[in-house]
């Protein structure tokens, strides 16, 4: 067994027993020791592989506790990537290249233009033409394939584009009205369809009946493209220094099955901990289970969880997600807010309180770690009322259930979660991507309870960080936990209840995340831990806040094996 000795940079361990060191020794996929350079050289031995960090910082691999690695990988797998397209000619060229290798008649699906998933910093309006191409422009790329430029949630209203073959494939013609339900169908002055549709035209978190019927006519991703997309997404994460992901939301058995397939094939390049969602509400069509069907589903799903012996893929706990996002108008508020089309709403409950109580009671009595995905004021209160009743009969506080999102949360609600033994995973990127929208639709008073990270910390709740809808740069998420800046504006929601210290923000992505997941072998560079190590080009604790999000990961180790390398680290 060959040891690996890493020197030539500051070692930031995130281990409170020894926060810093000069060198680290890896052996057999674990951290053998950290300490002074001379002592580590002696321990590693003459035959050790020697790595010079080149003045960078050596630290634990990051843990993203809401990455949607598989979902976003499947979403983009096999598609024509238009995220960085510059104009219509560029789009046509990319689609034409795909058409050359695609059998005639098969769909060609394209990503949206711009930066997923909020599309604030860049979107289709940043094309030279300032809009998506119409069907005649897309026909120049191919007339033999249906083509669609997708719209991705959560942004709503949104916009999609079809070519002529795509319009025919989904059954749209000039006879259709200019607007059906909330979908606007663009036409020329002469009444011809342009191929552009606007409104609730996202690929998920949309339940518009008309758009839903179109969604059912689109092709599902193939197993091949889903696997390839997931592998590509993992590579993007490891290039940013993420070595562990928590897939705790919207995971169906087939998603877990794909991870198991990749694990059996030896293809995982990240550690994954997952839960199963007891009833997914995200994808159309959503037809709620009956109370009896829901009760019967719980033990079937529970039978699949609980194996924590695998070092790369763990399935632990069950998730319930009773509500939806504010962008789509589903956020459960007490006072009416505005939906994407300017209508007043108090949100939507997708899963009944009866199902929620059945879920809480089942997890409490069976000793299952529950995971609640809740972000809105009414959602919190409904759940807390149930949980506080159940905990008196079946005490689950030592199981440290997980609260996901907590996008808005009052001081009283935070205290109640603490009393129930909860831990929290959330994303500072929610304030970044949605803050302005919350102010417009709910009111600026919502900002005082928006992503109050310091408030949660002060209550004693352990915090973990995630990227979710974006930005997908974890270093920017760490910066946002401190600055709470909003995308597309100069506003900063950086009050005393929101902003964390740099160290606490970094802990959300390392030791804190490991604690929330209950995965003791990750999150720090302490002896005996997994050798999940990254080498970065700057000190994340000392660099300027504006430089932090530009952090470059030079090398990423997973269990001592290199899964990302810029070749700027010398061996």
Into which percent range does the helicity of residues fall? 25-40%
Report the uncertain regions.
none
Please report the distance between the alpha carbons of the first and last residues: 17 Å
Described by its quaternary structure, the protein is single chain
Q: Mean pLDDT across all residues, rounded?
A: 97
Tally of contiguous helical segments = 18
Number of strands: 26
What does the model show?
The protein is an alpha/beta fold and 571 residues long. 30% of the residues lie in helices and 20% in strands. The chain has an eight-stranded parallel β-sheet with strand order 8-15-16-17-20-21-22-23, with helices on both faces. Strands 3-2-7-24-25-26 form a six-stranded mixed β-sheet, with helices on one face. It has a six-stranded mixed β-sheet with strand order 9-10-11-14-13-12. Strand 2 (10-12) and strand 3 form a beta hairpin. Helix 2 crosses helix 7 (223-239). The longest helix has 17 residues, at 223-239. The relative contact order is 0.13.
Comma- or semicolon-separated keywords:
571 residues; alpha/beta; six-stranded mixed sheet; 26 strands
Detail the topology: elements first, then pairings.
Layout lengths: L3 E4 L2 E3 L7 E2 L1 E5 L2 E6 L1 H8 L4 E4 L4 E4 L1 E3 L4 H8 L11 H12 L8 E3 L24 H5 L7 E3 L8 E5 L1 H6 L9 E2 L2 E5 L5 E7 L9 H7 L7 H17 L2 E6 L5 H12 L6 E7 L13 H12 L10 E8 L16 E2 L5 E2 L7 H14 L3 E5 L2 H17 L8 E4 L5 H9 L3 E4 L2 H13 L11 H6 L4 E3 L8 H10 L18 H6 L3 H7 L15 E4 L8 H4 L4 E6 L2 E5 L6
Parallel strand pairs: 1-6, 2-7, 8-15, 9-10, 15-16, 16-17, 17-20, 20-21, 21-22, 22-23
Antiparallel strand pairs: 1-4, 2-3, 4-5, 7-24, 10-11, 11-14, 12-13, 13-14, 18-19, 24-25, 25-26
Helix pairs in contact: 2-7, 9-10, 10-11
């Amino acid at each position: 067994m060959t040891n690996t000795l890493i020197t030539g940079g500051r070692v930031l361990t995130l281990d409170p027993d020894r926060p810093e060191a000069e060198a680290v020794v890896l052996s057999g996929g674990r951290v053998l020791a950290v300490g002074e350079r001379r002592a580590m050289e002696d321990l590693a031995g003459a035959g050790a592989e020697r790595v010079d960090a080149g003045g960078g910082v050596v630290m634990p691999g990051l843990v993203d506790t809401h990455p949607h690695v598989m979902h976003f990988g499947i979403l983009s797998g096999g598609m024509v990537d238009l995220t960085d397209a510059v104009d219509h000619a560029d789009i046509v060229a990319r689609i034409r290249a795909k058409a050359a290798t695609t059998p005639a008649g098969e769909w060609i699906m394209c990503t949206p233009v711009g930066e997923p998933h909020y599309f604030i910093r860049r979107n289709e309006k940043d094309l030279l033409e300032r809009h998506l191409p119409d069907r005649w422009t897309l026909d120049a790329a191919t007339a033999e394939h249906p083509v669609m430029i997708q719209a991705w949630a959560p942004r709503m209203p949104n916009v999609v584009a079809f070519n002529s073959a795509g319009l025919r494939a989904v059954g749209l013609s000039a006879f259709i009205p200019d607007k059906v339900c909330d979908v606007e169908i663009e036409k020329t002055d002469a009444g011809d369809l342009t191929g552009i549709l606007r409104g609730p035209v996202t690929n998920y978190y949309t339940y518009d009946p008309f758009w839903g019927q179109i969604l059912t006519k689109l092709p599902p991703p193939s197993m091949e493209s889903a696997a390839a997309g997931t592998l590509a997404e993992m590579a993007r994460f490891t290039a940013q220094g993420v070595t562990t992901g928590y897939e705790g939301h919207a995971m169906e058995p087939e998603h877990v099955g794909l991870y198991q397939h990749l694990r059996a094939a030896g293809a995982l390049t990240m550690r994954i901990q997952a839960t199963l969602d007891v009833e997914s509400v995200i994808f159309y069509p959503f037809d709620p289970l009956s109370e009896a069907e829901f009760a019967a589903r719980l033990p079937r799903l529970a039978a699949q969880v609980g194996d924590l012996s695998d070092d790369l893929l763990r399935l632990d706990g069950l998730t319930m997600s009773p509500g939806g996002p504010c962008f789509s108008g589903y956020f459960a508020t007490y006072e009416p807010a505005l939906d994407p089309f300017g209508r007043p709403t108090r949100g939507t409950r997708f899963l009944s309180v009866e199902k929620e109580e059945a879920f809480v009671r089942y997890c409490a009595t069976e000793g299952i770690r529950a995971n609640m995905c809740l972000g809105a004021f009414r959602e919190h209160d409904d759940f807390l009322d149930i949980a506080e009743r159940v905990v008196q009969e079946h005490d689950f506080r030592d199981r440290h259930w997980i609260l996901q999102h907590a996008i808005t949360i009052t001081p009283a609600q935070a205290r109640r979660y603490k009393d129930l033994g909860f831990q929290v995973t959330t994303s500072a990127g929610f304030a970044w991507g949605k803050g302005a929208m919350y102010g417009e639709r709910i009111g600026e008073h919502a900002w005082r309870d928006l992503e109050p990270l310091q408030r949660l910390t002060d209550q004693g709740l352990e915090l973990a960080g995630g990227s979710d809808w974006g930005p997908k740069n974890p270093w920017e998420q760490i910066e946002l936990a401190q600055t709470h800046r909003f995308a597309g504006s100069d506003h900063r929601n950086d009050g005393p209840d929101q902003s964390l210290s740099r160290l606490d923000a970094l802990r959300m992505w390392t030791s804190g995340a490991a604690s929330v997941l209950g995965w003791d072998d990750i999150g720090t560079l302490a002896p005996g831990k997994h050798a999940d190590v990254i080498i970065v080009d700057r000190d994340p604790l000392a660099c300027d806040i504006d430089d932090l999000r530009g952090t470059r990961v030079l090398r990423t180790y997973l269990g001592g094996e290199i899964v990302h390398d810029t070749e700027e680290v010398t061996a």
